[in-house]
């Protein structure tokens, strides 16, 4: 992680003795859980946090534990991956099955998709090893760009169409991922046009190093769309302010048909 992306906070803890009391709080759908450093906390269809009775979700998917003075988030599932976003979307990690990562920011957001449903879980800690640098805070205010990426208007509106349920949610941690046909209909596009634009967007992000968007054997279309939505929303590539683009595009296409 680069120095210009994050820095040690002024009140950074110096005690890194394993077992030190550093409580972690987990938020899902308005419900809060306090995780003890002395126990493992499991998240999934079953566990300490029962997310949902979703057949596509692992019984035990994610696990939080405290080791060597750090909180760790591990993916203990076998198929699903999760996007972990911190620093207002400036720092992102893709947590694949079998991987684990330290929780070093005061706030982090976990986003993952199981079947047609996308979930969002918040992690909060009072003591953090890193804080957002002044440069990133400035970029988050809109004065500069953290990671510039150029999309055509049609590519951007495609991303918004897929992310619409997540962008419209109000304090809700669960949203439905639209199908390609539903998103295409929302825009007034043909499926061939939608798939072509989706390929272009995924190829562009893949070249930037965004994981999980490359096609190939075993890569389902649903997984690619889910990963695109997770990345776009977590990184604030698209926001609620972009939602009017959907009606504008739909109106434009309906007018052209007339």
UniProtKB/TrEMBL annotation:
<protein>
    <recommendedName>
        <fullName>FHA domain-containing protein</fullName>
    </recommendedName>
</protein>
<feature type="region of interest" description="Disordered">
    <location>
        <begin position="1"/>
        <end position="20"/>
    </location>
</feature>
